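look at this:
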Amino acid sequence: MTENLVKKVKVAVYGSLRKGLHNHSLLNGETFVGQFETDPEFSLVDLGSFPGLLKDGNTAVLMEVYEVDATKLKRLDGLEGYRGKNSNNFYNREKIESPFGPLFTYFYNKNSELIKANIISTGDWTDYVRTKKIRSFI
């Protein structure tokens, strides 16, 4: 008897896909592995209603890790504007190291020089969004 095994990959999310945020429903039914903070080597930037992750920064970024199958990974790629190794992607999906082993995350792939003024110093998009909403009512 042959078992039908579905290969899963780990994906780290840092923005609108995190628990409690507007795109998290895309991860419904997927296995939550855990949460971690990266080494301070990235920049998280505010792109409006979602963030972008940049390399070569000095901020530790809070990420949630999920195990997803190929179908779900393809849906995440669609949301992130990733269409394979191509310079026209909105985000590029790349591997990074984590306490959970190597995993994928999405790096912003547009002109990062224009948005460096929008760096989120805490590296926590969820906290930033809550603070931003509170400030908008003042």
In short: The first helix runs from residue 70 to 80. DSSP finds two helices and seven strands in the chain.
